[in-house]
Fold this sequence. Notes:
This protein is mainly alpha-helical. The chain is built from seven helices and no strands.
Amino acid sequence: MAILPCIVLLIPFALYKSRYLNVLNLGDQVATGLGTKVEKERRTLLIVAVAQGESSVSVGGGIAFLGLVAPHLGRRLVGPRHERFLPVKALIGALLLLVSDTLARNILAPSEIPVGLVVAVIGAPYFLYLLIRKA
Length: 135
């Protein structure tokens, strides 16, 4: 129930504003030339992102690698268009957390491994791959 306002209000609003994210990716001058109020949209989208992040962390705890790995995987799967990228990123994050939680509970049963550790073990090799590929 604690995250319900975020799901009901902020996620649909972020999906509605996804076209502005696409325009802002083009740069400030181009976005202004296309009629976007850059500072207003940037401020609004920043507030929405912070509210979504704080509500997720307040419920799920700080699982750092999840917020870093899911966007990179989502962008590689569907490309840079935010109307497709945002839902895919959320689904990848949920799937990664579900797999990590399942592994954390079952690897050393009946004791448990911290979920953040399992997410980091899954996410670290992908970041190493990204570093090697960019170099």
